[in-house]
């Protein structure tokens, strides 16, 4: 399970891994944003001139085909940054990124992002790890789409959304679920009924309540957990570094 959102409204998970001095420097060079449902943070083909670190909420990463068909390839919350192409020096964003759950974000200009990457090794390492975790999520999505049932894939996405919000209620419309799963709305309705019949969730208009998370994870089988375990693994060393620094400071006192 991914470390669930704990209300880090100011910084989010990634920036919380920095020591206080570097984090303060980052925040002073950034601006705070309020993310509202439906906000388009980036368009496909848009020039990348800023980077956003989410503190809360959920952003949906959507691939738009030449014919205009939209398919979600991943989501990002308090554990990530967008767009990940900024790390590779891409000049244009290839996907559409839209807010699916309201929240907060920290935004910085590309020049600031590059400067911080060059100046602070730990900032660079954290960003690289976050990009790796995001790529792992996309790989797991491809595997789930290839072999999982619609209801298993829905269980996986609900768990992923649950990881990124506080509480057990998810504000998700049928249209969003259809986009997430790349299926038509009737298939979404059928999958919701399956999970409801197992008493795993309660579905209401534009709202889903997680009733039994552990059972939902069991239902999702191997389609949920790999990316989340990888996230815990790669970020564990930063927790260790923070503990070590804190220990040195305590000894100095």
TrEMBL record:
One of its GO terms (biological process) is regulation of DNA-templated transcription. Gene3D superfamilies: Jelly Rolls (2.60.120.10), Winged helix-like DNA-binding domain superfamily/Winged helix DNA-binding domain (1.10.10.10). It comes from the Bacteria. GO terms for molecular function: DNA binding. Residues 14-117 form the Cyclic nucleotide-binding domain. Keywords: DNA-binding, Transcription, Transcription regulation. The keyword Ubl conjugation does not apply. InterPro entries: cNMP-bd_dom, cNMP-bd_dom_sf, HTH_CRP, RmlC-like_jellyroll, WH-like_DNA-bd_sf, WH_DNA-bd_sf. This is cAMP-binding protein.
């Amino acid at each position: 399970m991914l470390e669930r959102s704990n209300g880090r409204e100011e910084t989010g998970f990634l920036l919380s891994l920095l020591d206080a001095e570097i984090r303060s420097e980052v925040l002073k060079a950034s601006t705070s944003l309020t993310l509202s449902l439906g906000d388009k943070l980036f368009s496909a083909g848009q020039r990348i001139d800023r980077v956003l670190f989410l503190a809360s909420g959920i952003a949906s990463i959507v691939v738009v085909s030449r014919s205009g068909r939209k398919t979600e390839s991943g989501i990002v919350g308090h554990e990530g940054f967008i767009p990940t192409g900024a790390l590779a020096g891409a000049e244009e964003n290839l996907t559409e990124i839209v807010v699916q759950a309201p929240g907060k974000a920290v935004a910085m200009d590309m020049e600031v992002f590059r400067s911080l990457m060059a100046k602070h090794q730990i900032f660079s390492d954290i960003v690289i790890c976050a990009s790796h975790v995001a790529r792992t999520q996309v790989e797991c999505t491809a595997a789930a789409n290839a072999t999982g049932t619609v209801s298993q894939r829905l269980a996986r996405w609900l768990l992923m959304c649950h990881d990124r919000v506080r509480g057990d209620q998810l504000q998700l419309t049928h249209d969003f679920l259809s986009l997430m799963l790349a299926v038509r709305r009737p298939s979404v309705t059928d999958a919701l009924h399956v999970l409801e019949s197992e008493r795993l969730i309660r579905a209401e208009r534009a709202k889903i309540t997680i009733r039994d998370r552990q059972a939902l994870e069991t239902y999702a089988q191997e389609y949920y957990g790999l990316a989340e375990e990888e996230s815990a693994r790669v970020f564990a060393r930063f927790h260790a570094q923070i503990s070590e620094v804190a220990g040195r400071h305590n000894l100095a006192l």
